[in-house]
Amino acid sequence: MRNVNNANLTDLVVFICAANIPVMYLDGMLASKVGFDRFQSLYFLATLSVAFGVAIIRSSRIPYWMLAALLGIAISAIGAAFYWGAIVGLVKNVQFIVRGPLLYAVLFLLFVGKVSPAQVRFYAIITMATVSTSTILHYLFSFGLAEKGGRANPILNGFLADTNSAVFSLMFSGLALYHYERSNMSRVAIAIVIFLNLAALDSKSGILLMSAYAATKLYFALGGRSFITRIVYSASLFLLSAAVILRPEVIITQIVQFAYSLSVKGQATLTIRLSSWDFLTIFSATRNLKFAELNQGYPIFESSFSFLFGRSFALFDTQNFIESDFFDVLFALGFVGLASSLVLYFYPLFNSIKKGATGLALPLLVLLASSTLLVGHTLFSPASVTTISIVSACVLTSAKRYSRKKTVRFHHPDVSLTNA
Predict the structure, then answer these.
(1) Where are the extended beta strands (E) located within 205-255?
(2) Per mean pLDDT, which range of 32-36, 74-78, 100-104, 346-350 is the poorest?
(3) Among 59, 79, 124, 403, which residue's Cβ finds the most Cβ atoms within 10 Å?
(4) pLDDT at residue 300 above 70?
(5) Backbone dihedral angles phi then psi of residue 211, each to the nearest 5 degrees
(6) Distance (Å) of CA 116 to CA 14, 93, 250, 392, 399
């Protein structure tokens, strides 16, 4: 009976979390139509409350690695608060910690060992269906083509309130759905849906990452274990690496041009940007310029204290985010907070790889690292955090079961070496 209740509780929280992107769409619609922009915040507060209650009912234990990471984030939040004044800085830090690390930790503890691939498939299908519906409706009825920053906004996002989080959730859960599907036709359909939505949402980094993933999968599908295929692949990789080293601007420009050709922005925008950008600016998507500008006004390396504990998230009340979680967290919570955050989010995927779940955990790890460094809206965005928690917990759970089966099979007393 207890197992049945646990399964029902997990189903309940998965169902609530699956409303993640639909609620984001409704939040954008309400903000546009009636001006109420707190619907999504209320949803995540309710999700956190339900998940926390279920975790208490189950008497979930916090593993040492998670406890150490949360403690490091808490210490940084308190230390960084003193830059702006204890109350103002601490309140702002708590807001971001609740919507990021705390939400992730509670959901992960609830899901790990309990969530199944079928539940992750359900979550991914709802996410993909919502984003696709948003894109199609916008295309058919021209929703939201308004002025944004003085320019026409070409992004076909319907009423999605946070396109970066929607893109990340789409790719992160989409990769899991692709991995768990066994039909090649289903996988092709999933890949097409993801690519079309990335183009509509104008995600150049997403297009490049999915292209790299598709190329890798194609390599193994065409016989990646054969000698000839490995030779061709290795030679191509060597030539591409040599070209990037010798002519980085040309190669990166061509790669970015490919991504822009699939996005909704015109060739004129691409030409203007690439003509004024150097290699590092193209590669980092101007994050290096934003970092230099913010660091000039608020130097992070000014003292050991500011480097270790940062300057609080209150800094971004008056300054723009760099749109790179890696650097935003470094400025807000310092090196201690950044290192603790990376441990919190990355350790389950590293552990999954260690236990043999490389096929899914490694692409997810690359996607998470790339988004953290170059995109933002990942580690402290409730929408993205919800997706990371359910998918990472499922991958780690599957990896542990796979590792346990291998161990039992290897040590089974009835299996002799001769029979093996």
Answers:
(1) none
(2) 32-36
(3) 124
(4) yes
(5) -65, -45
(6) 10, 33, 45, 11, 12
Q: What span, in angstroms and rounded, lies between the C-alpha atoms of 363 and 172? A: 9
What distance lies between CA 366 and its chain's CA centroid?
10
Q: Residue 78 contacts by C-beta under 8 Å, 6 or more apart in sequence?
A: 90, 93
What sign does the CA torsion over 303, 280, 191, 399 have? negative
Extract long-range pairs of 413-416: CB within 8 Å, 24+ residues apart. Answer: none
In which residue are the tokens 């699956």 written? 18
Choose among 98, 123, 248, 243: nearest CA to 180: 123
The answer to whether residues 77 and 300 touch, using CB atoms and an 8 Å cutoff, is: no
In whole angstroms, give the CA distance from residue 216 to residue 221.
Answer: 9
Nearest to 60 by CA among 118, 113, 124: 113
Tell me whether strands 147-148 and 151-152 are parallel, antiparallel or unpaired.
antiparallel
Asked if residues 96 and 103 have their Cβ atoms less than 8 Å apart, the reply is: no
pTM: 0.83
d(C-alpha 52, C-alpha 57), whole Å: 9
Half-sphere exposure of 360 (CA within 13 A, CB side): 25
Count of CB atoms within 10 A of residue 322's CB?
Answer: 25
Q: Choose among 281, 303, 279, 305: nearest CA to 291.
A: 281
Count the Cβ atoms, other than its own, within 10 Å of residue 5.
11
Do 301 and 354 meet the contact criterion of CB atoms below 8 Å apart?
A: no
Q: If we measure between CA atoms, which residue out of 391, 330, 411 comes closest to residue 124? A: 391
CA 137 to chain centre: 25
Under a CB-based contact definition with an 8 Å cutoff, are residues 69 and 343 in contact? Answer: yes
Q: Model confidence at 207, in pLDDT bands (50, 70, 90)?
A: confident
Only one residue has tokens 């949360």, namely: 70
The CA distance from 313 to 219, in Å, is: 43
| Separation between Cα atoms, residue 146 and residue 68, nearest integer Å | 46
pLDDT at 303: 83
Which residues, in sequence order, are bridge partners of residue 151? 148
Residue 122 CA to residue 173 CA, distance in Å, equals 10
- Dihedrals phi, psi of 11, to nearest 5 degrees: -60, -40
